[in-house]
Amino acid sequence: MKAVKTTDLPIIYYDGQCGFCLGFVSFLRKHSRADRKVNFIPFQLVSRSIGDELLLIHHSKTQMAGEAAISLLYLTGGLWTIAAILAKLIPKKILNKLYYKFARNRYRWFGKTACNFN
């Protein structure tokens, strides 16, 4: 298997204060296949001007919100690929509506923590 440089990996900017986001990022770091690794960066570390939605940057392409979530599932591999394929069947307008509903309620449902930078 060819080694992947960390500079070639996709970058995910996520909410480092969201309990769900921190748990999911921790899970993905632990369980992602070696050839499907991703650089995770809390957006609080970079800038508040990024906004508070999931942002994926890979090969000069930017994806946000629901589209970024689907790509993250696909990049994770394994059974998550099936979830990504199924999620792609959801029309983009509905997908983003669901994403933003979840995003608006994430602190209430999963709590808010101090930002974790590892």
Automatic annotation (TrEMBL):
Domain of life assignment: Bacteria
Alphabetical UniProt keywords: Membrane, Transmembrane, Transmembrane helix
Transmembrane residue ranges: 68-90
InterPro entries associated with the record: DCC1-like
Cross-referenced Pfam families: DCC1-like (PF04134)
Full protein name: DUF393 domain-containing protein
Protein species of origin: Carboxylicivirga marina
Lineage: Bacteria, Pseudomonadati, Bacteroidota, Bacteroidia, Marinilabiliales
